[in-house]
Amino acid sequence: MQQPPLSANSSAKRRCVLICQHRSCMRQGAAAVLSAFQAAVPQGVLAVASDCMGQCASGPTVRVMPEGDWYCRIQEADVETIVTEHLESDRAVRRLLHPRFHPIED
User: Is the pTM of this model over 0.90?
Assistant: First the structure.
C-alpha cells in the first residue's frame, strides 16, 4: 500500500518497518504481523515484508529503520503497542526489544 507523501509541516518521522517473511518467522505468524502493521502504521511509515534477517530462532523479527531497533517474537497483538509507543511516541518498547541487539542495562 503506497503512503501519501508527508507535508513539509508534518512532525511525523519517516520510517520503514521491516517484517521478516522467511520460513521460520512465517511458521510463527509473521504474515499476520505484517498485515497488522500495514493496517496500523501512521502516515509516513512504510511497513514491508523482508527476507530472512538471520534471527530465525527469535521470530517473527521486526526491525524499525532508520533507528535500527530490533524486535523479536512479535505477535499480532504486539503491533498496536509498537505503533503507539515507538512509531507515534518515539519510545522503543523495551520488553519486546531483541536482547541480542539491545542488552538490558542495570
Answer: no
